[in-house]
Amino acid sequence: MHVVAVLALDGVVAFDLTIPCQVFASARCSDTTPAYEIRVCAERQVTTTACEQQPFQISSRYSLDDAIDADTLIVPGVDPDQPLHPRTVRLIRDAAARGARVASICTGAFVLAAAGLLDGRRATTHWQLASRLADAFPNVQVDPSVLFVDDGQILTSAGVAAGLDLCLHMVRCDHGAAVAAGTARVIVMAPQRAGGQAQFIEHQVPIGDTDGLGSTLQWMQDNLDKPLRLADIAAKATMSTRSLSRQFRARTGTTPLRWLLDRRLQQARELLETTDLPVDRIAEASGFGSTETLRHHFSRHVGTTPRDYRTSFHG
Questions:
Q1: Is residue 258 scored above 60 in pLDDT?
Q2: Which CATH architecture is the domain 205-315 placed in?
Q3: pLDDT of the residue at 202
Q4: Bridge pairing between strands 72-75 and 57-58
Q5: Any idea where the domains of the chain sit in the sequence?
Q6: 3-class SS at 273?
Q7: Three-class SS string for 82-115?
Q8: Domain 2-187 adopts which CATH fold?
Q9: Which segments constitute the HTH araC/xylS-type domain (predicted)?
């Protein structure tokens, strides 16, 4: 079974620590068996920094030695000013050297950077601390505008709730869209927020809201197979295209057409995983129109072809 080790370093942010535990423990394979083994690994009893007025202590049955053979190593957020023990740095470097997937949540990126894992790589952290990360580690290409960065073996996320998006993304990469969507339902969150979505979002508009943008989102979702243009969406929302684009980005963090593309890709993935429909039928049903267009967007955003994706994830 895939082992996920979550490092509980002294000064860990409690919410960041619990995010991977909740997400990966909630993931179930198609036969309902657990998809992961979770280990919270700590050198000793550690103190959190989540509540400045009332910090509390955490202890775990697992030590740092129990992270040595983990398939995925996750570093939750910590106090960036907290000095790192050399043993922690060696553990993280060794994990990367043996090919383990290494990820950070929020200020955990400072730990990965201190271990040298982010040199020459694109990475992110909480937008309030992005400039500090860039100044402290000039060899890191810090992108403060995204929810998370998947740079292959090394992944980083922005602040707090973006860790949920990153962990769900890893579940999707490991087990496909259906398992990720099931996990999202268990933890009651939206199953898909793309890594390139903006960090600062005024608030998410739930699909199905009867007022304002929510009804337009529902209409877009219900008509993914139609050739929707920006003007069509603006007309449905009874706005000008300029007003629609401005309000859409303020409410969802992305543009109407990018949101539409993400939803179409999500639907194509689910159809590839759960049906035997020919690829050309899936292209039509998800709004891409042709196999060539689906293949283009799929290769660009998913990193593989529809047929190869189906080979890997068809249930």
A1: yes
A2: Orthogonal Bundle (1.10)
A3: 39
A4: unpaired
A5: 2-187, 205-315
A6: helix
A7: CCCCHHHHHHHHHHHHCCCEEEECCCHHHHHHHC
A8: Rossmann fold (3.40.50)
A9: 214-312
